[in-house]
Write a structure and sequence with these properties.
The protein is built from 10 helices and 16 strands. With about 300 residues, it is an alpha/beta fold. It is elongated, with a radius of gyration of 25 Å.
Length: about 300
């Protein structure tokens, strides 16, 4: 989609808005399939980075351009803003190129571009949501119950909540190192670890015979972390190595509780764990849309909303 071009067009839309010119409902920029063989048709390699070939991109067939994506000329705008602010939430090559397109076009029009890095704020917000979800999920656990905690930061926060409930006894089964760390000194909790080869990315232990080990267990509740969740495509996960383990967790639980922040809702990850009906409850944050909440409820999934300041 040529992020450099998207950056330029975004700035030009801002200039049009500044001049109170009519704006479309959406703007379509050219999209072509770029492969290893065709990359050099659209980009020149300059030392350690790639530079877009503007002459080639602007020469793409007009049928794949939105009329409103045509590059703005200086005489089309009566006035230009002195400063334009751009908030970026991610650090990756795509956003680097998009920001570069913004900066180049701003310089051509004599505009100062102020880029605000909000990635830290976004990460903090996600972490806050996961803490709230962990706390709300922990409230589902009753004294004397046996629970299975999946890998993931949300379940680690859930474990921290259980560690604080010293007047109650629980049994916790897990393959997650952060969960084990959170509970290792909690004398009121019987902690059962599932061993195997340690996977650093997921901070969890996995073994080929884990299914046989889990088959001999039974838990009151399993708290399952997921990468994607939708009514149409069900429960999904990006980590192939973890998928079978999550399916085994579902098999041993009387009740399956999904713990997922709202950013996971509507996403479809690489591997399908199972349909929505495989779970009983979803604990998520207060950014879930009313539409998604209704759709899950109609599919038989109880939704519990954790408030971040609760």
């Amino acid at each position: 989609m040529f992020p450099e071009l998207i950056g330029r067009v975004c700035l030009e839309v801002a200039i049009k808005a500044y001049n109170r010119l009519p704006l479309p409902g959406h703007v379509v920029t050219p999209t072509v399939v770029v492969t290893g063989e065709t990359l050099c048709d659209y980009y020149d390699c300059c030392e350690d980075h790639w530079t877009i070939r503007w002459d080639v991109v602007q020469g793409l067939p007009k049928e794949i351009w939105s009329r409103d994506a045509a590059l703005l000329s200086r005489d089309q705008a009566r006035e230009f803003p002195r400063v334009v602010d751009f908030v970026r939430y991610l650090h990756d090559e795509y956003y680097d190129q998009l920001t570069g397109g913004l900066e180049q076009r701003a310089a051509e029009f004599g505009i100062t571009l102020r880029v605000t890095d909000a990635s830290a704020d976004l990460a903090a917000g996600i972490d806050q949501a996961r803490r709230a979800i962990g706390k709300a999920a922990a409230n589902l656990v009753r004294a004397g119950e046996a629970v299975m905690l999946d890998a993931g930061s949300t379940n680690a926060y859930l474990a921290q909540e259980l560690a604080r409930r010293r007047g109650e006894n629980f049994t916790v089964i897990t393959h997650s190192l952060p969960v084990i760390e959170a509970l290792k000194n909690a004398a009121h909790i019987t902690l059962i670890g599932i061993g195997g080869i340690f996977h650093r990315e997921s901070q969890a232990f996995l073994a080929t015979n884990a299914g046989n080990v889990l088959a001999g267990l039974r838990v009151d509740r399993a708290f399952l972390g997921v990468t994607g969740l939708s009514v149409e495509h069900g429960i999904s996960n990006i980590d192939l190595a973890q998928t079978d383990f999550k399916r085994w967790i579902i098999e041993i639980a009387k009740e399956v509780v999904l713990v997922a922040d709202s950013l996971k809702i509507g996403e479809v990850a690489l591997t399908r764990i199972g349909p929505i009906s495989a779970a009983d409850k979803l604990v998520t944050d207060d950014q879930i849309s009313s539409r998604d909440r209704l759709a899950f409820a109609q599919a038989g999934l109880e939704v519990i909303v954790a408030t971040r300041n609760g």
